[in-house]
Design a protein that fits this description.
Blueprint: E1 11-18, H1 21-32, E2 35-39, E3 46-51, E4 54-61, E5 72-78, H2 82-91, E6 95-103, E7 107-113, E8 119-125, E9 140-147, H3 150-160, E10 164-170, E11 173-180, E12 183-190, E13 201-207, H4 211-220, E14 224-232, E15 236-242, E16 248-254
Parallel strand pairs: 1-4, 5-8, 9-12, 13-16
Antiparallel strand pairs: 1-5, 2-3, 3-4, 6-7, 7-8, 9-13, 10-11, 11-12, 14-15, 15-16
Length: 257
Amino acid sequence: MKITQYAQGHACWVELASHDWQGAKAFYHAMFGWTAIEMPIPEGHFSLFNLDGDDLGAMYQIPSSEAQIPSHWRVYFAVRDIDACVADIQAAGGQVHMGPHIVGDAGIMAQVSDPEGARFALWQAKNHIGARRQGEVNTLCWVELACRSPLSEEAFYCKIFPWTALTSQVADIEYIEWQVAGQSIGGMMTIMPEWGDIPAHWMPYFVVADCDVFANKAQSLGGQICVPPSDIPEVGRFAVITDPQGATFAVIKLDQM
């Protein structure tokens, strides 16, 4: 659906940092039909992901000086007062890694992390609200935190955002839904031992028309299937995929679509 504004605490933007900007651009265009519109910056490459004239997110080339940083997706959350939110994050045990700083006339951003180290970003909009579409095929529909201390993380995020936590069972796994004014906008789950020594992280979910077809195509283009297409009762069919450059994301075919 088309979006004209975001409420406090809603995921409003996603950004891909990649070690192969050209390769990532080709992969996501083939998979989602996104056009990468390059924006002039003093050094490196920065592009906006666009679908039929609407911005959905962004992508940039990781500088060679930061070769140790893996390719990754970052989730941005909308805030009304970024300075106040940054102060709340620091008081609650999180860290600030960049900003807040002004991004032209578009808005103000900051990159931060929670007490477990999961990184995310804040966005106080001026002339650019964030993604212009969500919840339809080939757009963002959900964001999910994987962590090791869900009770501590719940306390942290409910201090910095107007979130409440709803506990449910999903395929015999305890799952937390983040809600704003009764609307579920994301989730949280505990990192499983079989996942190995991975850090806490946020992951975006994108809607697709057919999860199995998408996963097969991603694999044929050099992506890796981390979680094969699987059913979530009463929700849909999802898969977790790592792109050829190493960034991980999820896709889902929703039952109600």
